[in-house]
């Protein structure tokens, strides 16, 4: 018996703020979730799996129109025409109380009900599938104790959209624990909700979050895909298959000691090539957020001509062989190679600046208060999503570490300019 376990497709997930990126491959990014699902169906047909399990969050939110639902249905038709059944539980993003529009699915696509857990027995395959969908977006109860008892003599699989005991960056829904899952007596738990792949338990039972099918932004990095599972005589052989068409990366490149743009370009190009090599193969776009760090004389060049280092990174991306690279953002945490301790001992305005920065950086509460006073006329004009860090490419102004980073960047720029233009 062979099956695919996938979750968190988030088809047509909105990608906000792309208009801010000049030259962004907008359509390719917007279509990435769809193309990943097509590749999932292609894999199922190529491997001739018996069924596909989808553990929730097929969609990201209610459909603005029927196009999203029709696309998903089209892919399901491809599967059922080849004799491949599909079993679905709905999660918090596509719960029955969230998706208002409905389309009838093919009979071979089974969506588990939301009132109680139920069982589907595939006697010819020797497998029993147990699952329950979310009735509404917020579910705070543990579904597992009320799942049906395992069917004797067959391979029992539980489908569940859950946060388990909690996961960073994810809301707590249908909470449960590994001991509770084990106590149910199933052979495999097909989980969804957590977007980073995680094998919670290798065996007895095997418990897996496959992660989402396609990364949607720079915080969902690395390979994304599904589990291809073969069961023979009760033994489970599972492999992860990457299906993402856009691979997100975050690369930190140290520039310590580099004082020429040409040398910096070469170092960045090597880092980009190494990152792209990890996800090589197929028609894949590599979307990269680059962090330049360290002490470098190039900070003075950046101070004289803001944007110099970002342009250098974009130039380096053009030199990566055999891979398509898009630079989503360049973040700077570089400073000039100056002796801050010596400067701080002086009696001039520059020394006073360095001492003030040290005092503010050491006291988050004072830094927040000082920032609010200094930036008051600006902050009240910014949208709430910018202040909360939901704009994607901007720092989180409510976060002490982000404020500290901005403070240090401002100091480095001032010191570089003062050094370049001595009185």
TrEMBL record:
It holds the Pfam family Metallophos. One of its GO terms (molecular function) is hydrolase activity. Residues 1-196 form the Calcineurin-like phosphoesterase domain. InterPro entries: Calcineurin-like_PHP (IPR004843), DNA_Repair-Maintenance_Comp (IPR050535), Metallo-depent_PP-like (IPR029052), Mre11_N (IPR041796), Pesterase_YhaO (IPR014576). Keywords: Hydrolase. This is Metallophosphoesterase.
């Amino acid at each position: 018996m062979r099956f695919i376990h996938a979750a968190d497709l988030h088809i047509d997930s909105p990608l906000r703020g792309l208009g801010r990126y000049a030259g962004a491959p907008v359509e390719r990014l917007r279509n990435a979730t769809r193309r990943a699902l097509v590749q999932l169906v292609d894999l199922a047909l190529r491997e001739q799996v018996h069924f596909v399990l989808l553990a929730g969050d097929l969609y990201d939110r209610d459909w603005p129109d029927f196009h999203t639902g029709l696309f998903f249905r089209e892919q399901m038709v491809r599967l059922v025409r080849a004799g491949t059944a599909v079993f679905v539980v709905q999660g918090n993003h596509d719960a029955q109380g969230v998706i208002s529009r409905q389309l009838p699915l093919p009979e071979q696509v089974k969506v588990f009900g939301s009132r109680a857990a139920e069982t589907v027995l595939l006697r010819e395959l020797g497998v029993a599938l147990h699952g329950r969908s979310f009735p509404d977006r917020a579910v705070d109860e543990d579904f597992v104790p009320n799942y049906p008892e395992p069917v004797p003599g067959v391979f029992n699989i539980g489908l569940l959209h859950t946060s388990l005991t909690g996961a960073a960056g994810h809301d707590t829904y249908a909470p449960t624990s590994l001991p509770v899952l084990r106590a149910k007596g199933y052979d495999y738990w097909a989980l969804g909700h957590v977007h980073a792949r995680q094998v919670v338990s290798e065996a007895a039972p095997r418990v897996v979050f496959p992660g989402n099918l396609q990364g949607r932004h720079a915080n969902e990095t690395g390979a994304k895909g599904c589990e291809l599972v073969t069961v023979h005589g009760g033994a489970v052989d599972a492999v992860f298959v990457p299906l993402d068409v856009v691979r997100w990366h975050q690369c930190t490149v140290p520039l310590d000691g580099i004082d020429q743009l040409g040398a910096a370009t070469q170092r960045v190009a090597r880092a980009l090539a190494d990152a792209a090599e990890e996800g090589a193969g197929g028609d894949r776009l590599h979307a990269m957020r680059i962090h330049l760090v360290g002490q470098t004389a190039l900070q003075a060049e950046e101070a004289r001509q803001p944007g110099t280092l970002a342009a250098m990174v974009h130039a380096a991306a053009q030199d990566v062989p055999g891979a398509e690279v898009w630079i989503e953002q360049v973040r700077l945490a570089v400073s000039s190679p100056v002796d801050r301790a010596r400067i701080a001992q002086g009696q001039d305005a520059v020394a006073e600046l360095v001492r003030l920065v040290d005092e503010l950086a050491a006291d988050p509460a004072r830094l927040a208060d000082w920032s609010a006073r200094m930036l008051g006329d600006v902050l009240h004009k910014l949208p709430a999503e910018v202040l909360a860090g939901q704009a994607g490419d901007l720092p989180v102004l409510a976060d002490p570490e982000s404020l500290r980073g901005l403070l240090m960047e401002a100091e480095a720029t001032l010191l570089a300019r003062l050094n370049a233009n001595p009185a």
